[in-house]
Design goal:
Largest sheet: 10 strands, antiparallel, barrel
Structural class: alpha+beta
Helix content: 10-25%
Number of helices: 4
Number of strands: 15
Distance between the termini: 95 Å
Mean pLDDT: 83
Strand order of the largest sheet: 1-7-8-9-10-11-12-13-14-15
Length: 345
Amino acid sequence: MLKNNLLKIKAIHCIAFIFLFPVSAKSQNPPPPTILEELGFVLDDLLLISNKYVSPAAEAAVYQSTGSWYSSAKSLDLFEVDVSLHVNALPVSDAQKSFVVNDSDFIRLDIRDAQTAQVPTALGGETSVFYDFTLGGDDYELQTFEGANQQVFYYPYLQGSIGLWGQTEVTLQYVPQVKIDASGYKTFGGAIKHNISQYWLGDTPDSQALQVAVQVVYSLFDSKIFFDGFEITSTDPDQDALAVINSLTVDANAFTGQLIASKRINKFEFVGALAVSANQFDYTMGGEGDFLLGLLNDAFTALEDTSSMLRGNIGVNYHMHNWYLASNVTIGNFINTNLSIHYKL
């Protein structure tokens, strides 16, 4: 019985070899890729670069949009209003300005005169690194993406809060499009904060007792980073550029939960918080060349996923009657600083 089974298996292998060998032999000499297939390979390579290029800018957007939604764990009194003017500053470290690419990572692109290179992120600066590739037998070149070349990203905005029932308050933030240096910002969002220390301190706690609150925030932060335009162009000077790219827009939708604690000592109030965010990013390259730019932006949908981020916040407030000055520092992969002046109505 076993012998018969072995003979059957050998027969099947022989038949498979006879019928599949011509196909296998033919597959060793596949037809050359079409120009659309070549373009697809180039887009795959650009997507690989873009992932590392945009990631620091996306993370920076979350830090900027989620670090200053509160100034204290203590809630406002019923219908009391807090109006504030904020200035946000986010410095960029050298580690967030560049990343390494290797020739072996690419399908179609070749790093010019090198096997590896260090290139800028969207938060970086200028570069002299070029990629070479072919499309339909023609030679093309691309200077690698450059960044905004800023040491600090900052923007001002207004914020307002109102106290509601049950030691709960609502905060709103809105800023229309503002362009500062090589960046533009637009933000909108809202937050609900609830004081939970009332459940063990009572309704009339000591003004200097430790206060604890929880807050839930939704924020949409639209940051647009402008840079010197770079071309995807043929090496033939008589041909027009395929595309000119001069900006990157990152839309960061973030849901944030925060546990906040604060303690007031005379005129000073010390504040700390632990925050976690779930983030959804949308990326758009801006410039000229609708066809290739449209294909690249369509390919960006592969990068638009959800991520989470954990970080800490510390701050100090100084109170002066109905006015107070507040500071907030977000600590994590970035160090984001927020300074604000508040007036209570």
